[in-house]
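Retro notes - structure team

What went well: the batch runner handled both jobs without manual restarts.
What didn't: labels got mixed up in the shared folder, which is why I'm recording both outputs here explicitly, each with its sequence directly above its tokens.

Job 1
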Amino acid sequence: MEKLNRTSVTEFILTGLTELPWLQKVLFVVIFVFYVVNIVSNLGIVTLVSRNTALQSPMYFFLANLSFIDIFYSTVSIPKMLAGFFMENIISFKGCITQLYFFHFLGCIEGILLAVMGYDRYVAICNPLQYQIVMDKFTCILLVFSSWIVGVFYSLTHSLMASQLPFCKVKKIKHFMCDVKPVLRLACADTFLNEITVMLVTGFIGMVTFFITVVSYVYIFMNLMKIHSVSGRSKAFSTCSSHITIVIFFFGTAMCTYLGPTSEGSIEKDKVAALLFTVVTPTLNPLIYTIRNQEVHRCLRKLFRKEKVWK
């Protein structure tokens, strides 16, 4: 019977964000604009960092990697969500598990990269003389590579455990994508082990990365208090303020989603939180990191001047 249930469910229906036609049209336009801005701005960051020698430093190396991840992080769910505004959003069982895998794979990498960027700022501000030695090219590549390895095992844990569950005849996932918690709600078996695993694994990785970031900034702020020059303190803080904003936004929504209990009311809140860190955060990342960055502004002006010369 369990085998019959599992094999009989070959597809799911994603209910999306809302069933109100007028709101669907509004959301389609808003999310589509965010997605286009996300692709253009993040691709711009990757191109700018790779083409400009003035930006060949660990901070911009990590920022380019974060932008690269953000492009695919949104692409995992947004195109499918946009299509669902105009038609019944059907996704195959294999497609659902694949989406779940890549969503958590890319999300895990993003969380680790944010922690790495916090550590990078700590070394740059608190140990500037050792910065080039500590954050050499090999270390930077190793840190990024490690984030990908952790992401693989983290996402495999969730996707493999979800794929082994028997599912009932109810095929509607109350979400705009295949996330682990709404998928578990459709299982015909006890999902206690799955839910505990989600909380423990996500909680462990989330708390470790968040702890590293918090400790890094505690030392940074202690160091900034020793700087007597107001302009020097302001310049050092400006390089960190954008990162702090993204960290609070990303980790806050992620922890609210995966560390809380599952209930009918929490599913609706989870959809809003998921919308924030799949649509809003990846779009705001390049804007927040570059809006006050004078070095990026200079490189952009130089790039535009080159383009005009070629024309």
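Job 2
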Amino acid sequence: MSHIARTRELRPSILDRLLDHDPQAVREPAPARHQYLSELRQSVRRDLENLLNSRFCMIEPPQECPEATHSLLNYGLPDLATVNISDAEKKQRFVQQLERILREYEPRFKSVRVTHLENRERTDRTLRFRIDAVLWADPAPQSVVFDSILEPVSRSVNVKESLHG
């Protein structure tokens, strides 16, 4: 599911192509390369946040439907009320699951690695993690780093692009 043909030119997602940022303009000028890359990074950040704030049903698909495992039925994270991240080993397992989900559902990533970040204060109960990825981009792949925070009370994930990857 997360395969982009290398011969095809990368272009904005269907959502980004449908959004009209300037409805008064009859034609929108083609974006400059730096503008295109900036918009690509912003749309990836937005889509990552949407992916990580989506929850999938924890029911196993039938054995006669093996492809259902890789379908939109499993898009997002498991219900965070059922996820235990109380110790280092469980946090590491959760981070590995995050990485697998990103590989499966973010086709713009050529490669991705997720690492757990330690909290600065012992009383901080948020789960912090960093997403290091390489985006398919033309003419050369682009590295991006996103620092993310999972808030345990609201069970929401905030994703911000890191300026100092």
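One thing worth noting from job 2: The chain has one domain: 14-20+31-161.
We'll revisit the folder naming next retro.
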